[in-house]
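#struct-pred

JT: dropping the chains for the assembly here, can someone run the whole complex?
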Amino acid sequence: MEKTYKLLIINLIILIPYISYSQNMMTKEQFVAQIAQKYDLYKENTLKHRRFKHADLQPLIEKLKADKQFNVSLLGKSIEGRNISLIKLGTGKTKVLFWSQMHGDEPTATMALFDIFNFFAKTGEFDDLKKDILSKVTLYFIPMLNPDGAEVYKRRNAYDIDLNRDALRLQSAEAVILKNIRDSLNPEFGFNLHDQSTFYTVGNSRTPATISFLAPAFDYEKNINEVRGNAMKLIAELTETIDKFMPRQVAKYYDDFEPRAFGDNIQKWGTSVVLIESGGYPNDTEKQYIRKINFITMMAGIYSIGNLSYQKYTFEQYNAIPFNERLLKSIIVRGLTLKNNKKDYKADIAYSYAEKPINNHSDFYYENVIDEIGDLSVFYGYQEINCEGMTGEEGKVYTKKFNSLEEVKKLNLNDLYKEGYTAVILEKAKINEDFTKLGINILLSNSPKTNTLDKSVEMNKNPSIVIRQGGKVRYVVINGFVYDVENKTGEIKNALIYR
Ligand SMILES: [Zn+2]
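RK: done, full complex below.
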């Protein structure tokens, strides 16, 4: 009996440090791996795509008010009168300020911030670790600093001023809000959360820069003091963290000083600024995977700031991150033989897909134009089609006319493509949309624009192209989307309606 008792005590002595190690002192790697694996439990499911609005966030912010961990306060209103809220969490000495969507059409990190709130709100897991972190740091979040821009999914605010060029003149209500809260808190760290073009690459590789970082310069000489140095070290650590999820998909921005930008000035005012830019990732149009990477990155940042693990990293590691280049296109059709005045020439053709808003900016369709022609051997495509030895010609308009979209739906489009047709005429249908999910362009015959279809392969034009291999139609290009007629693969996400 006594022996069993002794054993129990010995066991406890062995176990106690283990228990406390596994909960409090879980390594950063273990913590990050676990929250990444369990991410779906935290993902805020009401935010499903990029074009959510200020109104979609308000019920989520209201919900946080019921949780006593969170302190929600009103910082002020946007130019058009939308509330801009501050969400505070934690009691620790080190203050960290996050602000997202200063540019209205850069929403990825905003979604991730609500995933972070859900992570902290969910009790019954990582409780000791959360308690530990929140005793070391106090987190302040401004989700969607530019709600007026987000309303119409544009970069600038209601004055059409770029908030990130208003840090000194402070003419916008939103800029004043950010400046005031920065000055009143004087936080040690700041996360400046943006989206960048999906066409950026990691150096001159073909890999998209899914995340790009910057520790902004605070002067033209690009000096490094302790404030900027800490941001560089933290970025070095976060780059290593992300690399485990998507190897070599992190780049960094050039650090030219921009005297009017918030990142640069906040660095100057004494807060270590980490700029995070969400770029592109293959087949992630709505950036939901990139959102998860944002969540992981910011959580790892919070952990690191609390536990000072960034201090082990070096400027050299930061400097080793490749710079952003812009070498990606949505699609490149390579090596196509074209004809001009009976003379053949060879060209690569690239499109960078462009979104046109619909339904009050809550959705979009594509209206694409050629954005590069010629030797595109230095560029890469998210999608690439090899057309060496193939010839391109203008798509034809089908001769039979139709009365309704229903009739067009019944057509076997593949048969039409094989005959070189890329457009049909609708005579009597009343259609309000400017696009169709059917894979063929539609001309409304009684309209003046019918004769203005782009015909030749030129910059900023959108011709339909029929591509032949050995005389037979192999591909059609409609609105910049390529369909493989022979293998019946590829997707014309939308064609256009010309009126
Ligand atoms: Zn931005």
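JT: nice. The chain has 13 helices and 25 strands. The pocket of zinc ion is lined by residues 103, 106, 194 (CB under 6 Å).
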